């Protein structure tokens, strides 16, 4: 394994953790900026509904009701192939709304841009039915 690949893997791992922290902080501009312009995402609670495009992703996050949450991200695995990468991770989501924690997974596709790594797709799902 070469140093460039290790650095890319670490950058992506950090990005996934930063995504969770920005989401918990309600920093929606920061979250949306982690996507490529044509990126798309779904929420683990709605795995068949995609939001496409950075501007639409920002609008979707800004439209959601305010909440207090904490995401725990674990088991991040990254595979880099040149300027493209894929990653998987597991999440544990706690909310102050009194709901039980949610356990889910993300499957990500990323691309290296002049601004750094960006999500092309974040596909979330819940691992256990509610």
Description:
Strands 2-1-6-5-4-3 form a six-stranded mixed beta sheet, covered by helices on one side. 29% of the residues lie in helices and 49% in strands. Strand 5 (102-113) and strand 6 (116-126) form a beta hairpin. The chain contains three helices and six strands. The protein is globular, with a radius of gyration of 14 Å. It is of the alpha+beta class and 130 residues long. It has one domain (3-126): Nuclear Transport Factor 2, Chain: A, CATH 3.10.450.
Keywords:
6 strands; 130 residues; alpha+beta
Percentage of residues assigned to helices: 25-40%
Largest sheet: 6 strands, mixed
What value does the Rg take, in angstroms? 14 Å
Oligomer: single chain
CATH class: Alpha Beta
Give the overall shape: globular
Domain module count: 1
Number of helical runs? 3
CATH topology: Nuclear Transport Factor 2, Chain: A
Summing up helix and strand content along with how strands pair, one would put the structural category as alpha+beta
- Total strands: the figure is 6
Alpha carbon gap, first and last residue: 41 Å
What is the arithmetic mean of pLDDT? 95
């Amino acid at each position: 394994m070469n140093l460039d690949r290790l650095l890319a893997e670490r950058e992506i791992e950090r990005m996934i953790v930063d995504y969770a922290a920005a989401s918990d902080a309600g920093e929606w501009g920061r979250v949306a900026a982690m996507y490529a312009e044509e990126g798309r995402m779904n929420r683990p609670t709605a795995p068949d509904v995609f939001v496409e495009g950075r501007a639409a992703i920002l609008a979707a996050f800004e439209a959601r009701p305010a909440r207090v949450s904490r995401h725990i991200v674990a088991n991040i695995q990254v595979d880099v192939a040149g300027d493209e990468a894929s990653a998987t991770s597991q999440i544990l989501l706690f909310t102050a709304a009194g709901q039980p924690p949610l356990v889910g997974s993300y499957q990500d596709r990323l691309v290296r841009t002049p601004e750094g790594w960006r999500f092309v797709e974040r596909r979330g799902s819940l691992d256990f039915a509610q």
